[in-house]
Amino acid sequence: MLVILAYYFFATLLPIDKIITRLYPLFGLLMIVMTTAVAVALLLSAPHLAEVNGLFSYFTEHDHSLLEPNPDGLPVWPLLFVTITCGAISGFHSTQSPMIARCLTNEKYARPVFYGAMMCEGIVACVWALAGIAAFPEGYVGLKAMIAQGGPGVVVNHIATTYLGVFGGVMAILAVAIFPITSGDTAFRSLRLTIMDAFNISQTMRHRLMLSLPLLGVGYLMTLLDFSLIWRYFAFSNMLLSTSVLWLATKYLFDRGTFHWIVSIPATIGTSISVAYIATAGIGLNLPMEYSKPIGITVAIVCLVALVMQHQKYLGKAAAKA
Predict the structure, then answer these.
(1) For the chain, how long is the longest CA-to-CA vector?
(2) How far is 283 from 159, CA to CA, in rounded Å?
(3) Please, which of 12, 76, 128, 138 could form a disulfide with 142 given CB 3.0 to 4.6 Å?
(4) Per-residue model confidence (pLDDT) at position 63
């Protein structure tokens, strides 16, 4: 933990080309190589993957849907989209877009960089999800039992060593651990940049140092808290942030009279998920769980109707001017 915090300190303090951009290509390569190794290992040594088809027959035979509670009595909607935050839509990643855009030497690189990263991360997520299914042929019971033994880290270790052996397992674990580590350095760096920009603080090394030290101190104190509680706050704030950015993008396209539905529809869905979660979560209004879906859907519909009405009003004004 101290080594990671030390890395965060220098990544927050120094210009982005001094540390982050030198290490990220190596981190990305390690993730791609190890994910490919896991995928190949699954194809060669996991013939029981065919049993995954039994999942669909289970839902059919028991008349279950994706909106029904899971074995622990928790509803898939909205918890699936909040728990798997980056898998649904990541507000944190949207905050990194300006930083990445500043690193591009040509605007034409934006599409392969942003869309390429999105598709790559989606493939990585699917490979590890499939590996998780294959590693627990007994299903949810076995997975839950191992999580109870030592949390997600034990699960990753079990999956990696099962298909890649000890050495390959260690490398795969490092590749998986890199994701949250790199999220931390960009988070601290973005926070430092945001504060200095907001208060017009000059980017001198002295000012950077004075700001980086307390930020890392707060980061250290957070390691002493209950991670499961922190994750709930992060998961909701991440979903809320992504929804806010989608509405901002909707406003941007709307004002220019261009096709905005590509972001406004996801913004509406994100609104439904965010409102449904905070309405019934313990960290929110703590209402009965059965209220989550109708509250979220109602608020989302109101937002969508308001958008359509405003859009029609905008088109009417544009036609009158023409």
Answers:
(1) 71
(2) 32
(3) 138
(4) 44
Average pLDDT of the chain is: 81
Token representation of residue 256:
């220019």
Q: What are the tens digits of pLDDT across the range 58-90?
A: 444 444 444 444 666 777 788 888 877 665 677
Minimal CA–CA distance to 155: which of 166, 168, 139, 144? 144
Q: Residue 185 corresponds to which tokens in the numbers above? A: 């350095």
Rounded Cα distance, 103 and 170, in Å: 32
Instruction: Show Cβ contacts of residue 313 under 8 Å, excluding neighbours closer than 6 positions.
Output: none
Closest CA to 96 of 19, 190, 7, 182: 190
Backbone angles phi, psi at 109, to 5 degrees: -80, -10
Place of tokens 């933990």: 1
Q: Provide the token pair at 114.
A: 């942003």
What is the helix, strand, coil percentage profile of the chain, to 5? 80, 0, 15
Token code pair at residue 18: 């001094």
C-alpha radius of gyration, the chain, whole number: 22
Please check whether residue 223 is in contact with residue 72, taking contact to mean a CB–CB distance below 8 angstroms: no
